[in-house]
Amino acid sequence: MFSYSAAKSAIAASSCLVLASFLVHDASAQGSPPGVTALPPVEIQAPQARRSKPKLARADRSSRSAMRSGRAAERHAATAPAASSNPAAQRAETAWGPVQGYVASRSAAATKTDTPIMETPQSISVVTRQQMVDRDARTVNDAMRYTAGVQTDLYGPDARMDWYSIRGFNQSTAGFYLDGLGLPRIESPDTSWSSEPYALERVDILKGPSSVLFGQNYPGGLVSLVSKKPTEDPLHEIAVQYGSFNRKQVQFDLSGPVNNDRTLLYRLTGIARDSDTYVNYMPDDRIFFQPQVTYQPDASTRLNIEATYMHIRAGGVAGYLPASGTFLPNPYGRLSNSFFAGDPSFNATTKDQYSFGYQFEHKADDGWTFRQNLRLAHLDFNSKATYGWYPGLAADNVSLSRQSGIAQATLSTFHVDNQAEKKLSTGMLDHTLLFGLDYQYQDTRAKKGYGALPDLNIFNPVYGVSFIPPVFDDTRLTGNSSQVGVYAQDQIKLGRLTVVLGGRGDFARTSQYEQVNNIASEQDDNAFSGRAGAIYNLDGGLAPYYNFAQSFIPQIGTDRNGQGFKPLTGTQNEIGIKFQPPGSRSMVTLAAYDIRQQNGLTADPVNPLYSTAVGETRSRGIEVEALVSVTDGLDLTAAYTHQDVKFTKTNDATQGNTPYNTPSDMASLWAKYRFASGPVAGLGVGAGVRYIGETWGDNLNTFKVPGYTLVDANLAYDFQQHWRLSINGTNLFNRRNGMCFETYACWLGPGRAVVGRIAYRW
Predict the structure, then answer these.
(1) Lower Cβ count inside 10 Å, N or C end of the chain?
(2) pLDDT by residue (tens digit) across 63-94?
(3) In total, how many domains does the chain have?
(4) Residue numbers of the domain that contains 192
(5) CATH number, position 292
(6) 466-504 b/e with 16+ CB inside 10 Å = b?
(7) Each residue of 585-606: b (16+ CB within 10 Å) or e?
(8) Is the peptide bond before 34 cis (omega within 30 degrees of 0)?
(9) How far apart are CA 202 and CA 506, in angstroms?
(10) How far apart (Å, rounded) are the C-alpha atoms in residues 148 and 126?
(11) Residues 745, 702: contact at Cβ < 8 Å?
(12) What's the whole-model pTM score?
């Protein structure tokens, strides 16, 4: 029996020993590298005299030079203004690197290996760097807005955090990964890790359950962020932005070799921003800095070390507006989306986050590839806020009830993922085997308090009223959580057929103490997650596929009998077809899926003051997504989603209803054209349209929020080799948009915004 304590000890020891054995990679050709077997057992041998590194023969030097040239071209492609049809450039693409243009051909989001998307039996969307540049993605939410199955800005754009759902499931508190490792999270997304899109090379979105390789996750999917990495060719950019809501930003990205033989590379990426937002009294200020160093002594070994620092200064809570006056009629008119329901004197949030980590890879002589990704991270969060609250608008249709709140939280996390990959053949079958062992630990401290606040006349607001500030008397929580995961995967190829089989065992523990109510709890959760899928590549670029996948995530708390809740689990069946015409830079995916989430919390029929884990939510849908580079100058993306999400089992009046803010239909279209010659050479023109259908305003389905269509546009001009000027507009026709989850809890989205940017590259 594999005990939790044994697993925890094993992972801590093996992580250090595996890394040490990788770094000492002077193994002889007669055997495997010292101390390395198939991801687990590690032998420690007596110290030996270090052998001198043999000099490379001329052919070897030429081979390594060619390989580096290829890698340099691949990384430098991130700055290319247009897609390329060069087959060599396409072959240079990897699942962890830059993509030329709009269409990625490889991803590791589903397999943790460098796998062609056309050989992956699951729906994956990749937002490339070029897409983010053309749409001027200022948040990760912005980057995903044109992706099928993804709904962004769930509670309005929020400077503190990205809020999003995939296939109808809110993924804001789980499912964010950076360079293969999960980002820190806590019970509330606004105190979770924030990401800077300017530092990203690509955003991969995996649809459906993903616990087989990544562990704790909701069944909607995951978002895999890939950082920019140091380049072998010099890359320099500095840019400034100015735009709506007094947005002022300076950003820089500098990279290149440190030494002549390019074994040591660096990259420095950073931004500084001073900005307001579309809501009055809500700033969006940020400082971000990310230094990186890559050491690659030879073609088989690579170590990338990175650190990040981010400081965020934002407001408190921008929403909790009444439905009357936002999306429902009010006899006195309707509110502007700039309306602030709180009080400016008590409205500030700061977040400071730091991280240090590395990604290590070593290709051994016997065909094994070993990887270890590790990150230490820390976050400090402080907030004081005032906002509208229950019961909402009074009978006079003008007086809004409000609340004040304070919150402090700190998180410290450690996460390491060890992988061993082996390619081999058994008869007619080709295998890509992956074995992994990961461990993550998070220590949390959080405290909250709430207080009263005088009502506000929403059509004639008077700020600066006196009130008694809240104290930390609601929650004082200390706790920690940890997870050990052991996983295995086999990607089997038989001619044009690819079968992916995987399984994972998770051993999770959560311990916490809530001081105010003197409640202590400790909970162990073990789970097995599996996946099976197959995809067949037909002539003409068609590839039908089927996928079965599972997910799980622990639920903290107890029922009326004092028993801990069962983990929330998910199961997906998905069929689809992918289409990539031979020789083209395009990708079309059609997917149909059925996801069942079990063990959701619902009211206990015996004692409604307690919950019981018997609820079920079902999500069915069809997604179509197309990315097409029609010519070297014209790129198109199109997406359509139809989803049917229901509470299929509850103990209250919501059974059979649709969750709030879950549209049945979403669609988007984006096109960008770049002139390569003639009097307007260097000019690029882009435009896009996004549609979100109507949604229910609460889980009881008592009122609806209208759907909306938003139009975006881009104008860019590259001139004098080094300069680039761009202007981006969002919601150009200033359409009203937003959401509700109760009659007293609505958010209005942003109106028209225009941002100009000028960049110098050398």
Answers:
(1) N
(2) 444 444 444 433 333 333 333 333 333 447 99
(3) 1
(4) 4-761
(5) 2.40.170.20
(6) eeeebebebbbbebebbbbbbbbbebbbeeeebbbebbb
(7) bbbbbbbebebbbbbbbbbbee
(8) no
(9) 28
(10) 11
(11) no
(12) 0.87
